[in-house]
Amino acid sequence: LWVLSSRDANATRLVRVPLNGSDPVPVAEDPEYSVTTVLLRPGTNALEAYQVTRARSEWVVIDSSIAEDFEFLKYVMDGDFTVVSRDLSDKYWTVSYKSDTAPTSYFLYQRDTKSAALLFVNQPQLTKYTLSPMKPITFVARDGMLIHGYLTVPAGVEQSMLPTVMLVHGGPWARDVWGLSPMVQWLANRGYTVIQVNYRGSTGYGKSYLNAGNLEWAGKMHTDLLDAKDHCVKSGLSDPDRFAIMGGSYGGYATLVALTFTPEEFTCGVDLVGPSSIETLLATVPPYWAPMLAMFKLRVGEDPELLRSRSPLTFASNICRPLLIAQGANDPRVKQSESDQIASSARALGKQVEYLIFPDEGHGFARPENMLVFAAATEAFLAQYLGGRVEPATPEEDASPFRH
């Protein structure tokens, strides 16, 4: 068997597992990054190549018989390619290319003539727009740890003192990847530089990177975000007085942490379904989270005093910058009470909070019409405090019915 496994290794690697009971044999690995994909020869399942997701996806060729093919495919178009399918004779390959500034393109590759013909792109209407490139970045955190992320600067503008949105990924045990992101392109189109940070605790960079986030909610996971902001400001790219933070789920929690633990660091914040209290989050876990409770105790903590000290709700009185909260009424993971309690506490103290509740949504948005309402409200909110562009909301995008 070919198996992707991180047992006895820092990052996920490819191992060969003999069916006679012998010990697994490591075949391909990277000390820091995960092996994510393998390419096997049709008919024999012999290993031909494997893919490692670093800042971008990179192939490592094992079988020399396909080396020329991969060398040719690297230059068909700018992007990261994947071999989607092959015919039984292995003369024709379907190959897809992921880009940061274009929709995914599909080609028919003919091996004997080393030629590739475009079949189609998956979102052809996007081809008429100039999109903004996403560039991998690294910076050194205050404790010396190297942190990874991505930076997207609006196309066609001077790269100096720009309004910026820090877009924090959820999970937190996940990661941002290079490619075409609808939310990033939307924000860049409105004039904002977008920084995405794979703070410690993110996946894809090995166990040591992941475990560096243990017990660091509102701790070093937060200072990584502050250090990312400093990186943008010190380079001259970002205006420190027009710097927002925004995210969903854990990214929403990170937004609330930013506005309560370091209340003057960010100009404003947008929290989408973020927990405001780790105590109440863990006390209301849905049944399908029960198997993960042991992981939560290890990575987040279980001491009530620790959880209370890392909860934005505890420090709601510190909020001094505008906050927009959006919540799904049917969210089973981060219940509406998480947003209710931070909104009511902050408002009781005279804080500026805009609160949207979507009655037919869960953990995030499934209905496009609700996503458009949220987008219209968010870009109006960001424009008020950062000065970016706004597309006027249509009557269908009016957020008034959702305000609470």
Task: Describe the protein.
This protein is α/β, with parallel strands linked by helices. The chain has ten helices and 18 strands. The protein has an eight-stranded mixed sheet, sandwiched between helices. The chain has a four-stranded antiparallel sheet with strand order 7-8-9-10, with no helix packed on it. It has a three-stranded antiparallel sheet with strand order 1-2-3, with no helix packed on it. The N and C termini lie far apart (55 Å).
Residue share in helix: 10-25%
Radius of gyration: 23 Å
Number of helices: 10
Strand content bin:
25-35%
Order of helices and strands: EEEEEEHEEEEEEEHEHHEHEHHHEHEH
Q: What is the rounded distance between the termini?
A: 55 Å
- Low-confidence region ranges: none
Helix/strand/pairing class, anyone?
Answer: alpha/beta
Average pLDDT rating: 96
Strand order of the largest sheet: 11-12-14-13-15-16-17-18
Q: Biggest sheet, in brief?
A: 8 strands, mixed
Number of strands: 18
Shape: globular
Summarize the structure in short.
By secondary structure, this protein is an alpha/beta fold. 24% of the residues lie in helices and 27% in strands.
Task: Give the topology.
Elements: E1 2-5, E2 13-16, E3 25-28, E4 35-40, E5 47-53, E6 57-61, H1 67-73, E7 80-86, E8 92-98, E9 105-110, E10 115-121, E11 134-140, E12 146-152, E13 162-168, H2 182-189, E14 193-198, H3 207-211, H4 220-234, E15 238-248, H5 250-261, E16 269-272, H6 278-283, H7 293-299, H8 304-309, E17 323-328, H9 336-348, E18 353-358, H10 368-386
Parallel strand pairs: 13-14, 13-15, 15-16, 16-17, 17-18
Antiparallel strand pairs: 1-2, 2-3, 4-5, 5-6, 7-8, 8-9, 9-10, 11-12, 12-14
